[in-house]
Structure formats: C-alpha cells, structure tokens
Specification:
DUF397 domain-containing protein; DUF397; 70 residues; 4-stranded antiparallel beta sheet; 17% helix; alpha+beta
C-alpha cells in the first residue's frame, strides 16, 4: 500500500466535537475515496484512514443514535 501524504490536507473539526476542547476530532474532505480522521488535540499525531463508505455508515449511525455512549 502506498503511503498517503496528509501534510497539506485541509482539516475541519467535527460538528459532534465537544465545544470545550475535549474529545475533538478533525476530518479531511480532500480525498474522494478516503476520510482521514485525527485527534485535534494532537494534530501532529497519527491519523486513521477510513473508506468514504465506512465513514458515511459511521456518521449515519451516530446521527441516528445507534451507537450508545458515542
């Protein structure tokens, strides 16, 4: 698998992130097939990569309340 350079992507904070600075994630919309996700408190740390369809399913489940405690 080829390494993906995330050094120049545009990150946005999730609308579900906690407004007081805790439990925040950032995502990038720069890739059509992948969604990079990182901890906003550690922007130089690692990012997780999800397929766009997997991320979409996750967001739908969160919005629908299907994931208690999330």
């Amino acid at each position: 698998m080829r390494a993906i350079d995330l050094s120049t992507v545009t990150w946005r904070k999730s609308t579900y992130s906690n407004p007081d600075g805790g439990q925040c994630i950032e995502v990038s919309d720069d890739f059509p097939a992948l969604v990079p996700v990182r901890d906003s408190k550690h922007p130089q740390g690692p990012a997780l990569l999800f397929s766009a369809s997997t991320w979409s399913s996750f967001v739908t489940a969160v919005k629908g309340g299907a994931l208690p405690g999330v």
